[in-house]
Each structure stands twice: as C-alpha cells, then as structure tokens.
C-alpha cells in the first residue's frame, strides 16, 4: 500500500506551486521572450544557445537533466511563434480561437501524469512523458493559457504596449490591466510621452 509522502523538506514546500497553472503560464511567457522571433516571425533574430533556454526552464522549476540540442531550440522557436499569437489576441474570443486552433492541430488527448511519482499529478496534452521538448513546450503552454482564459474570461497574456519591446507577459492579477511587460518599459514610455507633450 502506498501512502502520500509527508511534507518534510523545504523543497517539498513548493511541491504544488512549482507546478501551478500560473507558474506554467509565466514560464511560457519567459520562454517565448527568451526564444526570440518577435512579431515578424522566425528568422528575424538569432536563436538563443540551448544553455540559455535551459536556464529559463530551471528558473521555473525544471529539476531533471535539461538535454536541449540546437534542433530542439529551433522547434521551440517555431512553437513560440505560434504561442505569440495567443498573447497578441486582444479579446477572450480572439485568444480562445487561436488556442482552439493550436489545440486542434498540435496537441494530443488530455491525460494525467505524475512523472513516475516525482511530481504532483497534473494534466498533459503531449503524447507521452518522453515527448520532444518542442511538443512538450507547445502542449503545456496551450494547457496553462487555456485554463487561465477559462478562469478569468480574459486573454491570458499580452504583448508589451511599448513599440520598442517585443516581450509578452501574463496579464493575470487584480487591479487595472497592465499594459507593459515591466516597470522599465512603463517608465520609458511615460518619459517619452512627457517629452512629446513638452
Ligand atoms: Zn516591454
């Protein structure tokens, strides 16, 4: 008989949060930004080194070996371009249509996995636990963005409103909608608007 493992170590304290929908969605935004591409699509920027992409994965809780090849990174860049369309959608309806298109064309059936007991049970849309990185990235991102849209009935993310910044971000949160990806972009745009008025 198997028992639920008691929470004993500090690592276990974030057992759930490390794998939460919001963490997954934020990881999607961070990966889309790290993988580059931008509004005009692939081929316009240089692919990041596999180590740089692996660092983003580790920052969002990946604990296993991250054996990314340049080919995996190319596939992930293609997935990032597709996901960028979800962030570019300006209404819940538009974002849902993009997500439905991606779910129909690029993901498998809904299943649950605990990766052999090493994580909490969570849903996956890729074909199996050993799916290639690009397939895993697109499927896990579609899942998290779809759940956020379901939960908030709003687009799950946005593209930074600064014309000088191609970054995407998760727009969840209470209070007024954020327009910029970061404080840095918000400040730069405020200063620019002030100069234009002056
Ligand atoms: Zn920005």
UniProtKB/TrEMBL annotation:
<feature type="domain" description="Zinc finger CGNR">
    <location>
        <begin position="158"/>
        <end position="197"/>
    </location>
</feature>
<protein>
    <submittedName>
        <fullName>CGNR zinc finger domain-containing protein</fullName>
    </submittedName>
</protein>
<dbReference type="InterPro" id="IPR021005">
    <property type="entry name" value="Znf_CGNR"/>
</dbReference>
<dbReference type="InterPro" id="IPR023286">
    <property type="entry name" value="ABATE_dom_sf"/>
</dbReference>
<dbReference type="Pfam" id="PF11706">
    <property type="entry name" value="zf-CGNR"/>
</dbReference>
<dbReference type="InterPro" id="IPR010852">
    <property type="entry name" value="ABATE"/>
</dbReference>
<dbReference type="Pfam" id="PF07336">
    <property type="entry name" value="ABATE"/>
</dbReference>
């Amino acid at each position: 008989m198997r028992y639920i493992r008691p929470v004993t170590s500090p690592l276990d304290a974030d057992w759930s949060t490390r794998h939460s929908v919001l963490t997954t969605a934020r990881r999607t935004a961070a990966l889309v930004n790290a993988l580059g591409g931008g509004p005009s699509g692939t081929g316009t920027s240089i692919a990041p080194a596999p180590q740089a992409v692996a660092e983003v994965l580790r920052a969002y809780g990946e604990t296993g070996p991250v054996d990314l090849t340049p080919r995996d990174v190319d596939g992930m860049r293609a997935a990032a371009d597709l996901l960028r369309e979800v962030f570019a959608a300006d209404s819940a309806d538009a974002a849902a249509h993009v997500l439905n298109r991606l779910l129909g064309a690029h993901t498998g059936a809904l299943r649950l996995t605990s990766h052999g007991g090493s994580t909490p049970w969570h849903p996956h849309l890729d074909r199996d636990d050993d799916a290639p990185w690009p397939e895993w990235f697109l499927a896990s991102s579609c899942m998290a963005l779809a759940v956020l849209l379901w939960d908030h009935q709003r687009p799950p993310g946005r593209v930074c409103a600064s014309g000088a910044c191609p970054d995407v971000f998760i727009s969840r949160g209470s209070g007024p909608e954020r327009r910029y990806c970061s404080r840095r972009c918000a400040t730069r745009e405020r200063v620019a608007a002030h100069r234009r008025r002056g």
